[in-house]
Amino acid sequence: MDDPRMLSEILDRPTRLSGEQRAAVTSSSRYVRVVAGAGTGKTETLTRRIVYLVLHEGVAPSRVVAFTFTERAALAMKSRVYDRIMRLAGPGGCGALGEACICTIHSFCLRLLAERGGLAEHRVLDENQEFAFLLRNGWSLGLGNGKRYDRSCQVFLRSVNVVHDELLDRRELARRAPGFAWRLSRYDEMLEAHRFLTLGGLTARAHSLVTLQPESIAHVEHLLVDEYQDINRCQESLIRLIGRDAAVFAVGDPRQSIYQWRGSDEACFEEFTRGFEGALTCPLSENRRSTRSVVAASNTFADTFDAKRYKHLVPTRSGAGHAFLAEFETPEIEAEWVARQVERLAGRGICRVGDCAVLLRSVSTSARPFIDALRARGIDCVVGGKVGLFQRDETQAVGRLLAWLADEGFWAVDPWSPSERIVGDALLPSAIGEWRRGTGLEAAENELLSWREAVRAGEFRGLAEVYHALLETLGFNRLDLSQSDKAASAANLGAVSAVLADFETPVRLGGTRPRWDSLVKNLCWYLNTYATGAYEEMPSEKYGALDAVAVMTVHQAKGLEWPVVFVPAMTSSRFPSRNTGRRQDWHVPREMFDAERYEGDVEDERRLFYVALTRSREMLVVSRFRRINGPRGESAFLRDVAPALTRLEAGADLPAVEIGSRHPDEVRTFKASEILTYLRCPHLYRMKEVWEYRPGLASQLGYGTSLHLCLRRASELVKEGLAVPEAIETAVGECFHLPFARPAELEAARAKAGEVLLRFAREHEEEMGQIEDVEARLEFPVKRATIVGRVDVILGGNGSREVRDYKTTDEVATLDNVSFQVRLYASGLALAGRPVDRATVAYLNDARLEEIALSDGRLADAVARAERCVEGILEGRFEPAPGEHCAKCDYSKLCRGARPGDGNADRPCPTRAEHSSSPLPPVSGAVWPGRTRVVLRSRGGRTGRRRSP
């Protein structure tokens, strides 16, 4: 596909690549290492490389895999790739683009394990969920013998992750640390019993699969890796396994390696050329992000690194910009000055409030003065870092009220001062005051007392119901969600529901019914000893149109940029952190791994400060205070960068600054199920998909998902030659799982599932042999977005192709909505070069098929409806759409528009997921709450086909 015109378009549109970028993008070397300095356009280089491979080299998208460090970076890169290919090749060129895997390495490993490793029924625990699981089960591992159980659990998990990240030999571990090796083996068994995977163990598990089955990655022809300097040894080994047969294009910057405390090893980047023989190194040194003053400051500081030096970055922007140094007496004076500068710059129309960021070494030690100063001036701020969620008044309020449920409830106001606690009944007035400050609403003390008594009396089925009832009592429905600050409050209250779900889930596994006195006591301790220091505030994009200052850690700022950046609190005890290099406790013998790398050193802190300096586009302000409970010296880092900074006179204001053009909106990605949810009710969409309010747990949660997995496995077995009845029986035995069902409930549901599937298979046995694809992943473009989904089954034969969606029943979603979803899939398949001429929805409970009419007009109408939904989401239109569905809505208690008297609106607890001994469930969903699937309930028992309108 040697097309000079196309090559020119790839390299020169929408902006012309630098000579260094062009050399990297068009390199013919099998292995390429790109040394990309801060702001040199590494994301654009990776994007153009993918476009170059697909459009110029003719590489099939399914052969391309790109690893990013975060989900956000993956979405940004995917957006750019779609945008470029859409411009250059039109919609047809994007048809198969969804087959390219652009994701985090964890997402790739999960997909690999699900599709090639037989673990499709497993679910991944994030760090918080895993810690909650261990807190519940760690006693049986002997972790409760010390004084601090929570600390013991943290040391255990830290050690477990070292085993995974370093690929430590388990036999050698058993010889050197037999007690820990036994606990680790037992812990693995616990996770497997509940079909859980962990983020820490995903890559190691995938590495084992690829080692044993190299054919599992045979489809990968080109692997691109972003942020290569931040990978760990296990990830490096997996990349090398893939690179045995695939080309590898790695991009990174050792100057920005900042995650050594969780296993990252910058030496992996340096060793790339030794691990991949003949590798080409391409430097990117032209900084396009920052002004000359900012680049000069970062270059000056980079010269102080002890490790290998890299050549200076070269600024390409014309503006000089500003880089300042300021000093203040106290943290409060420093914070007040920063807040005043933000107010001045925004008030004069020079920039938006959201164009400013305050980057800190630690949010927990340094953020409070800035939060207070900004809010005192009426300036919204979004707090990052693991303590961010409970820095807000409204989340403090609900946290204190949840702690108040326990007989001896307490709330640690300052995690660094355990003696500063609010205890017992004093929690109630303090929470009411926090709620008033955070929301402007008054809460009735007598109603909260009634709520507490109802909880203690066991009138609720789970913590989701408890929490929804609390929010209703506090007046959640009186929040004006059209106001950005109130939307921010609602979003963060949604994040608290995730805290509760993470805590409650391991308690309820296996159908356990907890004692409420014990549950609320343990919840109080979980909130105070873990949650307040582990959960982050909702990302600002979840708030809608909120214009807010970002107050976050430097670690969180990696990969982001702002026109104006403040880097305050540069004192000797805060940056570098006084904890750097401190010896930590490990269950793994120190001689088995590089413990000092995990514990950090001053060089690691230097790289972190360098990252802070390189986040600014127009103006950088580095500052420090002189005293807090006594004199404080300046940071050594401040002395190192000071020659490149302009010192401000005491109290002087910042000058005006010219803000460059902002980035255009990115193409967003939506699941087809999300579009369906918005179609049903925009308010429901925002509550569930944006703010992530969690539904309640129920014994039958997961039924629909299990049926789908059983069908997928049965179809595989039939293809392998097994008779249909045996295939169904085997699949149900292997795949059917209800995490929250009691043993008797599980067996009854499993037996019923087998009957339902067998009856359906017998009614349509001839079709089992016509299955062309199962759970086919689909991604295709629409206006301003891409839509992703999984097609349950594609049937082929006799020169035709049929797309089919499986549902349990037809009560929850209308046939119109199901038809819309199936037609969307048909449109996407046509773009991907797999046109279908027939579509059906199969209702498993009564073995019935409904035929979905397909025509060009209906397919075009489905796409148009999807685009209208996307437009509504992007423009923030989330008004409630009352209807019959309100009766089964999880969130009717938290909706002004819910019809009075409709089902949940009159119930004490709003959840669709009923506790029931019936093996036929009202809902289906994933193992962890908050990721449910839409299911349908049957109207009757007849079989046959019926055509949709």
Describe this structure in words.
With 949 residues, this protein is an alpha/beta fold. The protein folds into five domains: 4-118 and 204-284, Rossmann fold (3-Layer(aba) Sandwich); 123-194, no CATH class; 295-368 and 544-576 and 598-647, Rossmann fold, CATH 3.40.50; 389-535, no CATH class; 668-899, Lambda Exonuclease, Chain A, CATH 3.90.320. The protein has a seven-stranded parallel β-sheet with strand order 13-16-12-17-18-11-19. Strands 20, 21, 22, 23, 24, 25 and 28 form a seven-stranded mixed β-sheet that branches. It has a six-stranded parallel β-sheet with strand order 3-2-6-7-1-8. A hairpin with a 2-residue loop joins strand 21 and strand 22. Helix 20 packs antiparallel against helix 21 (463-474), helix 22 (484-508) crosses helix 23 and helix 28 packs across helix 29 (682-690). The longest helix has 25 residues, at 484-508. The two termini are 45 Å apart.
Q: Could you tell me the number of beta strands?
A: 28
Q: How far apart are the termini?
A: 45 Å
Low-confidence stretches: 902-949
Mean pLDDT: 88
- What is the beta-strand fraction? 5-15%
Rg estimate, integer Å:
28 Å
Q: What is the third-level CATH name, the topology of the largest domain?
A: Lambda Exonuclease, Chain A
Secondary structure: helix percent = 40-55%
Count of runs of 4 or more consecutive helical residues: 35
Tell me about the biggest sheet? Answer: 7 strands, parallel
What's the number of domains?
Answer: 5
Give the neighbour order of strands across the main sheet: 13-16-12-17-18-11-19
Supply the CATH class of the largest domain. Alpha Beta
CATH architecture of the largest domain: Alpha-Beta Complex
Which term fits the overall shape?
Answer: globular
SSE-based structural type: alpha/beta
